[in-house]
Design a protein that fits this description.
Elements: E1 2-9, E2 16-24, E3 27-33, E4 39-41, H1 44-73, H2 75-100
Antiparallel strand pairs: 1-2, 2-3, 3-4
Helix pairs in contact: 1-2
Length: 103
């Protein structure tokens, strides 16, 4: 789960303020207004199938992305690869858990 920030008009308080944008993978899961705290969440019945489809696309495209990065970065990529291989399953498990626990 990653969090980013953006400035949007809040549907609750009507002010244009900073919002926290929470992502599950590449999908926007929820937004929260920093002024009034109003939260808008994607419904679980929509989020889970969309997340699983996105995850499938990410996994299928991973080998090609790794090859492009290896060609571009060379030795630094190879030095970072073992740690990245260890981290990736935990990252995916954390994303899946975040999406599933909402149900």
């Amino acid at each position: 789960m990653t969090t980013e920030h953006g400035v949007f008009a809040c549907s609750e308080c009507g002010l244009t303020t900073e919002h926290d944008l929470r992502y599950a993978g590449r999908l926007l899961e929820s937004t929260r207004c920093s002024h009034c705290g109003h939260v808008v969440e994607l419904q679980q019945r929509v989020l889970l199938p969309a997340y699983l489809h996105d995850l499938e696309q990410r996994l299928v495209s991973k080998p090609g992305r790794l090859l492009r990065r290896a060609a571009r970065d060379g030795l630094p990529f190879l030095r970072e690869l073992p740690a990245a291989i260890v981290r990736q399953p935990f990252k995916i498990a954390r994303e899946i858990w975040t999406v599933v626990k909402r149900s």
